[in-house]
């Protein structure tokens, strides 16, 4: 069943940025919680059949979320977020870095810089995301790794959680 909710995914090669605009049929408060509380994030952040597992999370400026995407054979792909700015129920910004289980960054893949903005109109909440990379080559590598497809699947998982 395909959703009629807005899902735009555009690549701005000139600025090494991906823009995603996604609607959710849920209140702003519920969508904000789903993006900022580890118990809910772990239910949708990884694309099926992967699962998200948060090791630690402090959602505050200067705080960090360390988590793994765990595959069907229990293989773990670790990342951390570092929150740089939080305006409650409006916007937050963070870097996202691939790492090991102790949060040592992977030197082969740089960080992504996320700017996530929330707005509500009637029964719908829109999440506007800009994800910047340090170079076009880095951006292309992430897209080649299946970022668009994986993130789309994860957002569809969030739809199911918000509907329940």
Structure report:
This is Activator of Hsp90 ATPase 1 family protein. Pfam families: AHSA1 (PF08327). It comes from Flavobacterium aquidurense. Residues 25-162 form the Activator of Hsp90 ATPase homologue 1/2-like C-terminal domain. InterPro entries: ASHA1/2-like_C, START-like_dom_sf. With 164 residues, the protein is an alpha+beta fold. It has a single domain (7-163), classed as START domain (Alpha-D-Glucose-1,6-Bisphosphate, Chain A, domain 4, 2-Layer Sandwich). Helices cover 26% and strands 42% of the residues. The protein is built from four helices and eight strands, in the order ββααββββββαα. It has helices at 28-36, 38-44, 136-144, 147-163; strands at residues 7-12, 17-24, 51-57, 64-70, 76-87, 91-99, 112-121, 124-133. The chain has an eight-stranded antiparallel beta sheet. The longest helix is centred in the C-terminal third of the chain and has 17 residues, at 147-163. It starts with 6 loop residues before the first strand and ends with a helix. The mean pLDDT is 95.
